[in-house]
Write a structure and sequence with these properties.
Chain lengths: 457, 174
């Protein structure tokens, strides 16, 4: 204990918030593996993300009310236990439906833990302002680290390990909170200020939802583009998308230099939209070209999320309820983003797949490769594409082994590269409309930001 | 620096960054990074100067596919995919409501066009083009498909196609 602050409890609460909010994005890099292992579709696997965020959005405010009614210690401890148990169920799920149900239960426990933590923190750290800072920073850290940790675990162990590893961590976070829960049970101290709960900040929460939708689009679509479209490994994609949280750190340094929350929110939304528009107009299928847009998105999300969260919580009590509203708005935004973009994206994949296959066939037909070899390649490519029906096509090892004759080998290599280029064009272009819609959502967030007269603190 | 100026600078930097990024990507071809569009099969496709039997067979197949696809009102590429396997062919005919007889008729028309294109390109002697046209106008569907897929083997070992006239055909091919 330092300055009267029980450090293990602060760490436990921060860990609880971090691990739960990481969970809304930690599976992003595992989605392609889940998609293959559970033999589902892009639309189906999206529900592994949507279900968690949807339940978080719906349960955050009721969970905050519950925390104030039955006691935040008990709510947080039970919430973490439920989160851990559901995480175990996610880890052993062998069907998509089981995984989605377990994710819903996990979100219920998570919502209880996160909102109760905001209720517990002021008493633990000594001030409401510091509590908000610890809560927001733990959530941001979790959300930022989530995709990279998820990608690492998926690559090194399996997608199931993402959920299984959360079990001991959640239980470890619950341990120091048990003392508070026991104290509440012994004293029977309950909050009774529900009737004095102020109205949530409509414009800030609305803007949060819209920006979160745009950010969800950025993360989800970029990961799918890298793994399914450009065939990167999960760990490779994890390294690439880490640019976003790194840029967010830069954004968090810029933020304090500008006191106006309205300006930070507006600039953040523009950065996010600009980055998404950049991803929509990638001039080639090259990983390096995703970096500048990611830098803009990272800086933007840090500026806009912190400005809007501060605005939504400033001067409002109780913090847990208003924190619940911000959690609800952010996760609702993620859900809306995924629900709006997935059908567009999957339809575009199908269209672009047809165009890419036709363009690839044209490349094969027009190539100078020996006609008999050409027929063999065309049939193998056709079989491969048929096997991957409904997914972004990859041609993989169709061209192996390469012919021994140097001249024929050069022709086959040229054919392979041209064919791959057409497929890459199709895969990359399939994401453009969704990225553009995400950019539009980010720009639309400027409306509630601009409409609010009370955004400036 | 006043807080108002800092706010303006931040928003201005965001706008400039976004516009520059999108502008650079568009200038580098971002809006045109799409699969190549396939060509209209009814348009004549020029033959390059064929120097070997393999090149003639290659362009013969492409011309035949163009001709057949034009007859059916589909793309050359879609027809090529359809002819790859029996299953693909069945899916194709079912999708477009085409009977085997209609498909055979279209492919024969394609072969006739390929012979004409080969003759125009100087790759096939008129002495051979005439009888070859008469022959392909009556061949069964499977043999017509095989001819498109493997024109070289048939053109190259012409006796399988023309019997004793095969050796003569070899002489008329470049």
């Amino acid at each position: 204990m330092r300055d009267g602050v029980p450090q293990p409890r602060v760490a436990a609460l921060a860990l609880a918030v971090g691990i739960v909010l990481a969970d809304s994005s930690i599976v992003v890099l595992a989605l392609p593996d889940i998609y293959r292992d559970l033999n589902t579709s892009v639309a189906g696997v999206t529900w592994v993300l949507i279900s968690f965020n949807l339940v978080m959005a719906l349960a955050a405010v009721p969970a905050a009310l519950l925390a104030r009614r039955v006691g935040p210690g008990r709510t947080a401890a039970v919430g973490l236990a439920v989160f851990a148990g559901a995480g175990l169920a996610c880890g052993v799920a062998d069907q998509l439906s089981t995984l989605i149900v377990a994710r819903c239960v996990q979100a219920l426990g998570g919502a209880a833990a996160v909102t109760a933590a905001l209720e517990l923190l002021p008493a633990t750290v000594g001030s409401e302002r510091r509590a908000t800072a610890v809560w927001a920073s733990a959530g941001a850290t979790g959300a930022a680290l989530g995709p990279a940790v998820g990608g690492l675990l998926t690559e090194l162990i399996s997608w199931q390990s993402i959920f299984l590893i959360q079990v001991p961590i959640a239980l470890a976070a619950a341990a120091p909170i048990l003392a508070v829960a026991k104290h509440e049970a012994a004293t029977g101290i309950l909050q009774t200020e529900l009737s004095r709960t102020g109205r949530p900040h409509l414009w800030a929460n609305l803007a949060l939802a819209m920006v979160s939708a745009a950010i969800a689009a950025a993360l989800f679509l970029l990961v799918l583009l890298l793994i399914e479209g450009w065939r990167l490994t999960p760990i490779g994609a994890a390294i690439i998308v880490t640019v976003m949280p790194l840029a967010a750190i830069v954004g968090s340094r810029i933020g304090p230099l500008v006191p106006s929350a309205k300006a930070r929110a507006a600039a953040g939304a523009i950065f996010v939209s600009g980055g998404l528009a950049g991803l929509a107009y990638l001039p080639k299928a090259e990983v390096a070209l995703t970096l500048p847009p990611q830098v803009l998105i990272g800086i933007g999300l840090s500026l806009v999320l912190s400005a809007l969260t501060e605005t939504a919580l400033a001067g409002r009590a109780p913090q847990a309820i208003h924190g619940g509203w911000t959690i609800s708005a952010r996760h609702a935004g993620v859900v809306i983003g995924l629900l709006a973009l997935t059908p567009i994206f999957t339809a575009d994949i199908a269209d672009q797949r047809e165009e890419a296959i036709d363009a690839g066939t044209a490349v094969i037909l027009d190539s100078q490769v020996n006609p008999l070899l050409k027929i063999e390649i065309a049939q193998q490519v056709g079989d491969r594409l048929e096997d991957e029906k409904g997914k972004v096509p990859t041609i993989g090892a169709v061209f192996e082994p390469l012919p021994a004759d140097p001249e024929e080998r050069a022709e086959v290599v040229q054919l392979r590269d041209e064919l791959q280029d057409q497929l890459d064009r199709g895969a990359t272009h399939a994401f453009s409309p969704s990225f553009l819609l995400g950019a539009l959502l980010g720009l639309l967030a400027l409306l509630p930001i601009g409409l609010s007269r009370r955004v400036d603190l | 620096m006043s807080s108002g100026l800092r706010s303006q600078l931040l928003v201005g930097a965001a706008i400039v960054s976004a516009v520059v990024l999108v502008g650079v990507y568009l200038a580098a071809g971002g809006s045109s990074y799409t699969p190549e569009k396939t060509q209209d099969p009814c348009k004549h496709r020029a033959w390059s100067n064929p120097e070997s039997l393999g090149e003639i067979a290659n362009q013969f197949s492409v011309s035949a596919l163009d001709g057949a696809a034009c007859e059916l009102g589909v793309s050359r590429e879609e027809l090529a995919q359809a002819l790859a396997t029996q299953e693909a062919r069945e899916r194709f005919t079912e999708r477009y409501g085409i009977s085997d007889a209609e498909l055979a008729r279209a492919i024969r028309a394609g072969l006739v066009r390929a012979i004409a294109d080969a003759e125009d390109a100087g790759a096939l002697s008129p002495l051979i083009a005439g009888p070859l046209t008469s022959t392909v106008e009556d061949i069964p569907l499977n043999q017509a498909i095989e001819l498109i897929q493997n024109a070289r083997s048939i053109l190259g070992s012409a006796e399988s196609f023309f019997g004793p006239a095969g050796e003569l055909l070899e002489e008329f091919l470049p």
